[in-house]
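Sample entry (206 residues):
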Amino acid sequence: MKKDEKPDRRIQRTRELLTDALMALIVEQGYETITVQNIIDRANLGRSTFYAHYQDKEDLLVKSMEEVVHSLISGVETSPLAVEEHGKRRRILSTLPIFRHAQAQYRLHKAIVAGRGMDMMVKTIQYHLSSHIQKQIERVLPKESPPSVPPPVIATYLAGTLLTLLTWWIDHNMPYPPERMDEIFQELAMPGVWAAIRPAGQDSLG
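Predicted structure, serialized as tokens:
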């Protein structure tokens, strides 16, 4: 078994080196000007090694971002009902895993939010994040009473707010821990959402 595992570890390590090299270069010089040669020079790997894993720099970028997108959207779930002031029970959209992921993968996220030429990738992340959030919202909506604001609009608002906070946090070198950033998101974004998805005539979802 150990012999079978070694190639997998080498492949993973090689891909990590190439991804790290790409992200560092994006922050330094912008995506458009990067060449495959730049990437392999930074990663200290050969050209044949690069092409054994990726077709070109676009393929490397897309596959690197797939992990980010998956980690981000899988981290956003509706948590159990939480008791707020005056005994009201509110559903909270969990974002703590996202801030923890950004902290653990700082260089990767820094490249996404600060790298020039990454606007399309940010839009892609926001699109998938919004779609996932919409599904989470629709899970808790009462079927008999539609919300005052359509779920796609709510999801777009939440995804945009979350990414704006995440970008600010990363740009300012993470001045607060992930737990505090999740609290800030809850305080800023969720009260309006609670009101928007509350069925007419009811005071809460609980």
